[in-house]
């Protein structure tokens, strides 16, 4: 299976990236091809709600998001990795997630793969973002895609670059989730 790994942190070598690399390693060790995208570096326009996709046509934008969407419609799996900034995923993550609409809304396209998410944040307690994480699992993944949802890994208390290196249990869990693809 091809898996698209979306690194949605603007910090290329930060904690989110470190945890994502472990999940990628688990998936690759299980025989899957993983393509990692640094969303910060891509040209992905936000969904405009034009509804052209509802007519069975490709998204009107010919950008990096279209390449990603076409791979998802061809059956690629997804790993979405984002820090939580101000209580939600980054703008980079939200922009590509909103473009999933062009598959969901298109009668000629569908998702067919597996999905997992990683959320990192500086707050030391995991309970603070549970409602947001459950909502994000539900919408868009469980309600609006045919993707088989595996699991979300929340890594708390990682504020400074390098903190994830000390999160041994979370790194192990990331690898294990990657193995489930």
Please explain how this structure is put together:
By secondary structure, this protein is of the alpha/beta class. 36% of the residues lie in helices and 21% in strands. The chain is built from 6 helices and 6 strands; from the N terminus they run E-H-E-H-E-E-H-H-E-H-E-H. It has helices at 15-29, 64-73, 91-99, 101-104, 130-144, 168-179, and strands at residues 2-7, 33-38, 77-85, 88-89, 114-120, 148-155. Helix 5 (130-144) links the parallel strand 5 and strand 6. It is globular.
Q: Layout of SSEs?
A:
Elements: E1 2-7, H1 15-29, E2 33-38, H2 64-73, E3 77-85, E4 88-89, H3 91-99, H4 101-104, E5 114-120, H5 130-144, E6 148-155, H6 168-179
Helix pairs in contact: 1-6
What keywords describe this structure?
181 residues; alpha/beta; 21% strand
- Spatial shape: globular
Number of strands: 6
Helical content, roughly?
Answer: 25-40%
Count up the helices. 6
Whole-number mean pLDDT: 96
Q: Calculate Rg over CA atoms.
A: 16 Å
User: Would you identify the regions where 5 or more consecutive residues have pLDDT less than 50?
Assistant: none
Q: For the report, how would you describe the main beta sheet?
A: 6 strands, mixed
Q: Strand fraction band?
A: 15-25%
* Helix-strand pattern: EHEHEEHHEHEH
Tell me the structural class: alpha/beta
What is the first-to-last residue Cα distance? 8 Å
């Amino acid at each position: 299976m091809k898996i698209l790994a979306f690194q949605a942190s603007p910090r290329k070598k930060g904690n989110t990236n470190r945890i994502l690399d472990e999940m990628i390693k688990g998936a690759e060790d299980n025989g899957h091809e993983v393509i990692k995208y640094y969303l910060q570096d891509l040209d992905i326009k936000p969904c405009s709600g034009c509804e052209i996709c509802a007519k069975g046509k490709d998204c009107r934008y010919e950008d990096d998001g279209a390449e990603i969407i076409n791979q998802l419609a061809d059956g690629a799996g997804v790993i979405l990795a984002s820090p939580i900034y101000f209580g939600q995923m980054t703008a980079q993550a939200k922009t590509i997630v909103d473009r999933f609409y062009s598959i969901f809304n298109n009668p000629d396209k569908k998702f067919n793969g597996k999905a997992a998410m990683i959320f990192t944040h500086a707050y030391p307690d995991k309970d603070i973002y549970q409602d947001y994480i459950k909502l994000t699992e539900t919408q868009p993944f469980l309600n609006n895609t045919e993707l088989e949802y595996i699991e979300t890994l929340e890594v708390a208390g990682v504020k400074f670059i390098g903190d994830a290196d000390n999160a041994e249990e979370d790194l192990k869990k990331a690898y294990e989730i990657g193995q489930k693809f």
